């Protein structure tokens, strides 16, 4: 059926606006990637590079030849892998326990978790806690303060509520205790939730900046985001020390290359979790 003139006009204007919004959104990413692959001589010669005449990997070679940048990537990878694993274990186990009505003190613990959502202790109490635990300048301090949130626990509890407790009873008849039931029965049925929350935690740990700045003083323990911030502040690019190249590329191409390297790992992880992510993103939001 053909629409009226007004409908066709609306569709055309709507499509044009969406195309403009998409262009405005995509262009900064395109510009970052293009500048990172632009030859230093061409970048210094031109005021604006939209499509380089000469492609170059010099900025990437300089970054990866330095000692600081690969080390920062390793720190971020450690936080993302180990932190995500710890957060998933803590969040899922607590949410599973709270989803079972037979747990004593369940209502009180839920109220305490809701209280943490409404009221945050703030930066100073957290810093004092980390200091008293002698975890300052330790990567475990960043992981500890980011283990979980009350909101994530409540959401995952909603998912576990949909798993009938009769499965627990059947597992108990077969000789499983609560821990065995959780790891052998419940978790395999919870892959959509695990994938969704795993992606949330991984992105959060990979992008750790403020907590790392607060608790990590040694430059050799800085994650990639802290190193990027220092590169952006340091216009000369001397935040990196490279022994293999005497003359560094322009600082702008270095910054763009560093941004590209920092975002690629998360972009590569998402396709592997996409199968579960769509379902897991709605976890706990609808309860039948």
List its traits.
single chain, 288 residues, mainly alpha, MetI-like fold, 2 domains, 70% helix, 0% strand, globular
Write a compact overview of the structure shown.
This protein is an all-alpha fold and 288 residues long.
Low-confidence stretches at least 5 residues in length (pLDDT < 50)? 284-288
CATH superfamily of the largest domain: MetI-like
Identify the overall geometry: globular
Helix content: 55-70%
Mean pLDDT, to the nearest integer, reads 83
CATH architecture type of the largest domain = Orthogonal Bundle
Distance between the termini: 38 Å
How many domains, in number, for the residues? 2
- Structural class of the secondary elements? mainly alpha
CATH class of the largest domain: Mainly Alpha
β-strand percent reads under 5%
Order of helices and strands: HHHHHHHHHHHHHH
Using the coordinates shown, work out and report the CATH topology of the largest domain: MetI-like fold
What can be said about the biggest beta sheet? none
Number of strands: 0
Radius of gyration: 24 Å
Number of distinct helices: 14
């Amino acid at each position: 059926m053909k629409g009226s003139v007004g409908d066709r006009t609306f569709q055309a204007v709507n499509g044009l606006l969406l195309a403009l919004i998409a262009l405005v959104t995509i262009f900064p990413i395109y510009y970052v990637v293009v500048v990172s692959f632009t030859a230093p001589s061409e970048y210094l010669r031109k005021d604006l590079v939209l499509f380089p005449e000469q492609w170059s990997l010099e900025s990437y070679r300089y970054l990866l030849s330095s000692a600081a940048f690969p080390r920062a990537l390793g720190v971020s990878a450690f936080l993302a892998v180990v932190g995500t694993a710890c957060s998933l274990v803590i969040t899922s186990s607590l949410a599973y326990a709270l989803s079972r009505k037979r747990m004593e003190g369940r209502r009180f613990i839920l109220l305490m978790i809701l209280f943490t959502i409404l009221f945050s202790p703030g930066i100073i109490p957290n810093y004092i806690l980390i200091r008293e635990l002698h975890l300052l300048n330790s990567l475990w301090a960043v992981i500890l303060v980011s283990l979980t949130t009350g909101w994530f626990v409540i959401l995952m509890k909603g998912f576990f509520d949909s798993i009938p407790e009769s499965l627990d009873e059947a597992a108990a008849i077969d000789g499983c205790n609560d821990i065995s039931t959780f790891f052998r029965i419940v978790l395999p049925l919870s892959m959509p939730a695990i994938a969704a929350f795993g992606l949330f935690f991984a992105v959060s740990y990979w992008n750790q900046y403020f907590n790392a700045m607060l608790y990590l003083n040694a430059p050799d323990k800085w994650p990639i985001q802290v190193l990027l911030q220092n590169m952006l502040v340091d216009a000369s690019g001397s935040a990196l020390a490279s022994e293999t190249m005497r003359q560094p590329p322009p600082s702008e191409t270095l910054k763009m290359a560093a941004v590209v390297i920092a975002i690629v790992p998360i972009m590569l992880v998402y396709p592997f979790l996409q199968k579960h992510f769509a379902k897991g993103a709605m976890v706990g939001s609808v309860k039948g």
